[in-house]
Amino acid sequence: MKQKQLLLSILFFAFSIPLTSAQKGIVYTELDEYIQKAQKDWKIPGMAIAIVKDGKIVFSKGYGVKNINKKATVNDETLFAIASNTKAFTSASIAILVDEGRLKLDDKVRQYLPYFQLYDPYVSQEMTVRDLLCHRSGLATFSGDLLWYETSYSSKEVIERARFLKPVYGFRTTFGYSNIMFIAAGEVIKAVTDSTWAQYVEAHFLKPLGMKHSNTSIKYLTKGGNFAQPHHVESGQKTQTINYMSWDNCAPAAAINSSVKDMSNWLIMNLNKGKFKGKQIVSSKGIWEMQSPHTILPVSRNSTAENFSAYGLGWEIADFKGNKIISHGGGADGMISKTLLIPSENFGFVVLTNSINYLPSALGKYILEDYFGSPTRDWSDLYLNYFNQTHANDLAKIENEDKNRNKASKPSLDLSSYVGTYSGQMYGDATITLKKEKLHIQFEPTKVFSGDLKHFQYDTFTLKLENTPSLPRGKVTFVLDATGKVEEMKVDIPNPDFDFKELKFLKVQ
Predict the structure, then answer these.
(1) What is the pTM of this model?
(2) Which residues contact 157 (CB under 8 A, 6 or more apart)?
(3) Cα separation of 264 and 447, whole Å?
(4) Rounded to whole angstroms, how far apart are CA atoms 161 and 157?
(5) What is the pLDDT of residues 74-102, one digit of tens each?
(6) Which residues lie below 8 Å from residue 74, measured CB to CB, with a gap of 6+?
(7) In 3D, which of 311, 344, 307, 345 has the Cα closest to residue 328?
(8) Portion of the chain with pLDDT greater than 90, in percent
(9) β-strand 80-81 against 257-258: which pairing, if any?
(10) CA distances for 456 relative to 473, 487, 495, angstroms
(11) DSSP letters of 319-367?
(12) Model pLDDT for residues 453-471, shown as the tens digit of each residue
């Protein structure tokens, strides 16, 4: 049976904040032990967590190292990429502009961005600022993300190229998570204020909330600074550091770097209906709008604790045992984060990690159950087993493909016949060259996307991108026309984040 006890003062010496009886159910010594074990089980190099209650930080701690090669330890001021937790900052920025009467949520996007265009003239004309913030554009989840991921395209160019994306749902009918729509929201802020999204967020949130170490771009992560390095952790492989990717062209969707200490102030402001230290940063109406359901999400029929799920404006919304829960996750290369609020309890937490893992989501389940009673299961272990099984299934699929391929087959043409430039209206060019009797691909807008092609069977080759270890092996298939000449190249790198099959590559030379 769970013992109720006070947290040892050593865990709070940095803040001198005592644990009070107002905190339901959380025994921080036990939580601390649970996190330490979970971090080791997941092989996460470094992570940090902070918990706020009644406007104060009640738990804040770092675990592990910032960089596995340097051993400097994580603390609660260590910066991590918060990735999609940035979206709520963008929605809150829009909320301030609504408070000031400078725009309305139901204003048409083209009122501010005349160049805005999607797959259908009606959708292009009718899309509102509100629509941008709640993922109901009709596009598939993550559709078009390869337009901004480490490309040379500006935010405006990304939005302009989105007109070539194909819808999979009706407009405003179904949830489809869209980073590009949040990029457009950032451009709306720029059009209304003459400030960049980054300048606006810094002036209206980072400074007023005392988030003194947080920033809006990796260019501010200076050598020797207190920031975590992203890592690639793979079962059976040596953990390795990976480079930060610049997300400046999708900044309103994912670019903020912050610490759990800084993020605590952001959580406190949101829990306090937009007020921080006596100053109203966002109106209570604006906070209410952000935290209200806009787009319905599915709920499992087997769920016993959750009755509804939806997306608001930059926040996910659900219930847990009758309590409204506001949350969001974030994923970047080698970074995963989670924020969660229980407004009725004036309680919230943030978890930041420097590898790809499901632990922040597992901790969300664990802490919710812990707060309102006792955890029903070991959520970290449950998520880890699923994570490992998924990885094992992916490896088994590759092994099965290799086993069943036609090893005796050969390409239809000499390798030199596949050399050339392949192009599509949406993404741009990819170049195939011949190097040391091997075909090599370079995605021109995305310089980190390059690698050798190894013959698989017939006119299909395998591809492992050299500079992105988190992406698995994929395939490139060349299509011949009726005369036997190469007319098209199809790329498929199966992964949960980027749809390479959206890219059209016709041979142009």
Answers:
(1) 0.93
(2) none
(3) 36
(4) 6
(5) 999 999 999 999 999 999 999 999 999 99
(6) 46, 47, 48, 62, 63, 64, 65, 66, 228, 354
(7) 311
(8) 89
(9) antiparallel
(10) 12, 19, 19
(11) EETTEEEEEEEEEETTEEEEEEEEGGGTEEEEEEESSS-SHHHHHHHHH
(12) 999 999 999 999 999 998 9
What pLDDT sits at residue 3?
A: 32
3-state class (DSSP) for residue 20 = coil
Residue keyed to tokens 């996307």: 449
Rounded CA separation 490/504 (Å)? 7
Q: Where are the beta strands (DSSP E) in 428-498?
A: 428-435, 438-443, 450-457, 460-463, 474-480, 486-492
Locate tokens 């099959």: which residue? 501
Closest CA to 502 of 329, 81, 494: 494
Burial of 152-169, coded b for 16+ CB within 10 Å and e otherwise, reads ebebbbbbbbbebbebee
What string of H, E and C letters represents the secondary structure of 90-102? HHHHHHHHHHCCC
The mean-pLDDT minimum among 178-192, 368-382, 475-489, 493-507 falls in 368-382
The 3-state DSSP class for residue 311 equals strand
Say yes or no to pLDDT of 303 above 90: no
CA 304 to each of CA 301, 322, 343: distance values in angstroms, whole numbers, following the listed order: 8, 11, 21
Residue 211 has pLDDT above 90, yes or no: yes
Q: Beta strands 420-424 and 450-457: pairing type?
A: unpaired
φ/ψ (deg, to 5) at 41? -60, -40
Run of H or E including 275 = strand 275-276
Cα separation of 57 and 15, whole Å?
A: 8
Count how many Cα atoms sit within 13 Å of the Cα of residue 263 in the half-sphere of its side chain: 33
Residue 287 vs residues 84, 189, 222, 325, 491: alpha-carbon distances, Å:
18, 18, 34, 14, 43
In the β-sheet with 335-342, what is the strand arrangement from edge to edge? 56-64, 46-53, 347-353, 335-342, 323-332, 316-320, 309-311, 295-297
- Give all domains of the chain, ordered by start, each with its CATH number: 9-390 (3.40.710.10), 415-507 (2.40.128.600)
First to last CA, the chain: 71
pLDDT digits (tens, 9 = 90+) for 317-329: 999 988 999 999 9
DSSP letter string over 92-160?
Answer: HHHHHHHHTTS--TTSBGGGT-TT---SSHHHHHH-BHHHHTTT-SSPPTTTTGGGTTT-S--HHHHHH
- pLDDT class for 223, splitting at 50, 70, 90? confident
Give yes or no for a contact between 441 and 476, defined as CB atoms under 8 angstroms apart: yes
SS3 label, residue 495: coil
Supply 309's token pair.
């799920």
